[in-house]
Amino acid sequence: MSVRTAKFNGVKYTVDMTPINGCCSPPKPKDREPTLRICCPLNTRVGLITAIHEAMHACNYDKHEAIVDRASIDIGRFLWRLGYQISLRGEKK
Q1: Of 10, 17, 37, 41, which is the most exposed, with the fewest CB atoms less than 10 Å away?
Q2: Is 88 part of a structural domain of the chain?
Q3: 56-86 burial by CB neighbour count: b if 16+ within 10 A, else e?
C-alpha cells in the first residue's frame, strides 16, 4: 500500500501496514511521530472496519474503546454495503 502518512485532527501519523488487528499510538509521543497500524488485507470488511477504528482513535484518542469500536463497526458495515471496497494492486474485481 502506498499510504505512508496520514493527518488526523492536525497530527501527522506514520501509517504502518502490519499483520495485526491494529493499534494507534498517542498523538503526542515524546520521541517520535505517532503511528497508526492497520491490519492487512484491507480488501476485507474487517480491514475496512479496523482502518476506520484506528483513524477514529487518531482523531480523538481520549474516546473510550467501546465507543470507537461500536462506531467503527457501524460505519464500516455501512460503507461496505455502499460498495466502498479496496481492490489491491493486481487483484481483479
Answers
A1: 10
A2: no
A3: bbbeebeeeeeebeeebeebbeeeeeeeeee
**11-38: average pLDDT:** 72
Residues near 86 by Cβ (< 8 Å), separated by ≥ 6? 42, 43, 47, 48
| Residue ranges making up the domain that contains 38 | 5-82
3-state secondary structure of 86: coil
Residue 93 lies in a domain: no
The predicted structure's pLDDT at residue 69: 92
pLDDT, residue 18, reads: 65
Asked if residue 28 belongs to a domain, the reply is yes
Express each pLDDT in 28-71 by its tens digit.
656 677 878 776 677 788 888 988 998 999 888 888 999 999 99
Looking at the domain assignment, is residue 90 inside a domain?
no
Into how many domains does the chain fold? 1
